[in-house]
Design a protein that fits this description.
Largest sheet: 6 strands, parallel
Number of strands: 11
Order of helices and strands: HEEHEHHEHHEEEHEEHEHEHHHHHHH
Oligomer: single chain
Length: about 450
Amino acid sequence: MSLMTKAIGTAKKVKHRFQDQIRERTPVYLSPVRRIERVALPERVCAMTFDDGPCRLPANPDGFGGKPLTLVLAEILEKYGARGTFDVVGDTSGNYPDEPGKHGSASWGGIAYDHYPDFGKDADGGVLHCPELVDRLLQGGHELTSHTYSHVLFGKKSLVYGKRHTLSGLDEVAADLEKLHALVKDRHGYEIRLSRPPHYVDGIAGGFSSYDAYAKMGYQYMAASFDGAGWLPLAGYEAEVEATWGPVARKLEEDPNYFCGQIIFQKDGYNMARRSPIAHGLEKQLELLTAQGYRVVTVSRLMEMSPFLDVSQSDPRGAAAKALLEAGWCPAYRDNSLRPDNPLTRGELAMMAFGWEAVDTRIALIRGEERLPWSDLKPGHPYAAPLLLACRAGCLQGDKAAADTPVTGEDVRGVLSARLGKAPEAVPQPLTHGDFFLLAAPLL
């Protein structure tokens, strides 16, 4: 293993530990866009995602008669009755002028931008150039999700990609997402519903994030809970292949239920050493999972079976929350948890009821195009926009936003009457999230 490889691997581990520490200290808010990493599912069902394709170039090393890498992956999945989620890009040929980075480094495909499937070979990848592969994936029952049209970073990431160009702000990010969405819909009749940002960079200039961009698109944020490896170059190809299935084998040996509800990350493309170990490691992964009785489904199918991180559909509160979700409410936190025992606050009630409707109002507040009537809440607060809409609808009254104040029966009846046209006469106090799900769902 090279020093560069070790440095990249170490940096990734440090980053994950740092992010975990930040998550522990950062308040979590309800959100119309949820980060889907895994779901609460007792059944042996999981999902696999494949980033950066479609790829018309063959696997490297090949061994599959020159077939496009994307086709190789689709055929292996189908051999095991599995369906994959292919997180596709549109076209990276517009990401020039640029220079190739050092082979084996994070900038292998370009210093200023990414280029897929490789520098100078953009015409062999992406939805724009590979319509036949997109059609083949859809014919095979696989899912398409958005990895953006151009795979340009939404914002700065100085640790690894400090020299990278970024999109200029929310409008440019949304336009890039819409470009891929329209291409897939117009050419293939397929509607994308999930997206993953390039290199998981969320921050967008102007005080926005990928969650705001996805809210504008009506998307959910597709993350992953298990790294299928293959992207990191190792001492040799065999070691890279073993890295794709070895951890799967060890986790299953420790706990056969480990992958229940998990989303596994993979690549539909080359790693930093321009090799594709997933082409030879995927079948072994599927053999291991199949031997333990697992089914591999698309991420959307996984979410249909169990939408939330912490509460399964066997729990009445989870089933009620799913009914609200399907009716356009926002019952879950940004990390996709329900936390049903949490006391319900005014800000959370407003977000549940007005979250999707408040997307444009939030943008206007951050840009200073709208103003709040209260002094106890900042315009950029996650609950500012839905509280403003609830106030305008006459649901929540008062001379303060009081976002963190527990709801009253009057608050709940006002919101339910405004949104559903009916409300219960009695509302238990204090009211938890789970109580509210069970109270509101029968009124839908």
